[in-house]
Every structure is written in structure tokens, then in C-alpha cells.
Please model this.
Amino acid sequence: MLKVWTVTKRILVSILPSVVAVALAFGVGALLLLVAGKHPGEAFSTLFMGALGSPNRIAETLVRAVPLMILALGISIAFKSQIWNIGGDGQFMMGATCAVFVGLNLNLAPVLLWPVTFLAAFLGGGLWGGLAGLMRAKFNANEVITTLMLNYIAMHLLSWLIRGPMMDPNGQGFPQTALLAQPLHLPILFGGTRLHFGLIIGLLIMAAGYFFWRTTVGLKIELVGVSEHVARYCGIQVPRTIILTMFISAGLAGIAGWNEVFGVQYRLLDDISSGFGNLAIVVALLGNLHPLGIVISAFFFAALMVGGNTMQLMVGIPFSLVTVIQGFVIIFVISRVVYTQWRDGLAIRRFNSRVSGQSSGRSH
Model:
């Protein structure tokens, strides 16, 4: 009984900051609604009914949540190693691009082509992010800048491809590729909805992410994040681990792109990532970089997006309110992270000062 209470207490302590951040963000949103002369209760009830009010709406929320949680899992792997991967959108696009190119040009049975396109997406995203990891490991280039710049390169490369070499010849000039063959579309799980088999794949990936930190590679990545000096002392090749971390992190972003294309869009379009990369950073932080927390966080933000559209249509409240709530969640989550780092740094400085004082006393 004591063990169960200890585990429960640890879980509650870990999720409390995220719950507080969300509550504060909704509190700010309620104040803004009151200032605008709207009723917060009506707005928020419409928002959540729009996301959860029927099986079809729940299915739509899950469709939006799957790429978010896969992306966020990849970002959490980089963040745990103290590598700030801001390039989720670009890696998402490159993974989707490689997967669609293979899907359109390789003549294989769907049962064989699915894993090949899946691997192509992982490699496409992984190599794109691995480039930033290589620059960090070899030249100490700031990965925030390199991943952000690679986002723009990926965006313009995709724009060129769907208007040039990969443009649908029968698309009447629209910037898009040809549709993937019907047998390549991920199977729909429930008739009358868009919920597809990508949900099962996503949940399996999240389960794998949970066990990843118990593998040798996961432990090496986490140790590098704790201290590169300690990792080197333990015999870990830090530059190689940094590159591998970025490759895995970005590869998962590429798989998120595969999921979106083969499960929802069925072709490449402009802005295929829909800003998932930036939102996934908040999902990862709100989920405390833990796979289970990320699943819950992704579902929450997907509900905000789906319900926000309903709120705009039914109550006449602009979708921008959802963006405001998301923004304040970001502010409160980042504030928590900064405070935690400041607190931990202060404790370390006090400990070092105490040790120095004791050493100085013994020397006298």
C-alpha cells in the first residue's frame, strides 16, 4: 500500500506543474472573453464539445493528435540530451517528401511498399536533422540556429518540388503531387471518420519510446544530457552520440510526416506540416518529456485545435483565442522550466560553495 501511494504521489507531483500551467492559460483566456463581452463557460463548453462531443469529433481529435505526439517524442529525445531541436517542421516535410517520392515511383505491393516508405520517411527526416547534429558535434554550431534555418530550406525545397519535378501533371496547375495509389492509404479504423491505422502505429512508437530510455543507446543519450564531461569520463563518444540523437529525433519527425501523408492528405501540399513542429515543442515540454505525458498533452492540444474551429463557427469567437491559450501555456511551461533550472543551478552552487568552505577549513 505504501509503495502504491509513493508511486501515485510521484505521478501527481510530476503532472501538477502542467495542470497548473493549463489552468492559468485558461484563466487568462476567460478574462479576455469577459473583456470582449463573451461568456467563458459557453465558449469553453463549446470548445470541448467540439472536440469530444461525439465519436466522430473524438476521432478527428485523435487524427490531429497522432503526428503531434510522434513529433513531440522525437523532440523530447533531443531535449533530454540538452540538444534543442527546433527543426521539427523541416524534418516533418523532408520525411513526407521522401516517403511520397518512394510511394509514387517504386512499383511494389502495398504490403511491401508501406515499410519501405516508412523507412524512407525516417531516413529523410533523420538525415535532415542529422546534418544539424553533425554541425553541432564537429563545429559546435548552435543547433537552434541550424535547425531553424534548415526549416526554411526544407519549406522552399518542398515548394519547388511540388511546382516542378514532383508536380501532378493532371493537377491543373495546383502546387501538389499526384495522389498516392488507393491501396497505399492507411486503412480507416472506424467507418465514417478519418481515424486511420496511423493511430495504432503512433501508440506503438510511444510505447517503444517508453522502453527506449532503458536501452544502452537511451542511457548514453541521457548521460550526455546530464553532463558531457561525465559522459566522456565514462567512455562515451559524445560527438557521435550527439549526431545519433539528432538523427533519431529528426527521424521520428519524418515518421510523423509519413503518417500525415499516408493517413490524411495522400499527397504532398504546401505547408504540409501545418506548424506541427513548433506546437510539438510545447507538447513535449507540457508532457514533461515523458511518453505518457506527451500522449496526454498531444491529445489536449489536438482537442484545442479541433474544438477551436467549432467554437468559432457556433459561438462566433475567433480561433485566435485558441492561439492565445496555446501561447500562455507556452509561457507558463517555459517559466516552469527556467525556474527549475535556476533552482537546480542555485542548489549546485550552494553545494559547491559548502564543499569549498569545508576544504578550506581542513587546509587550515
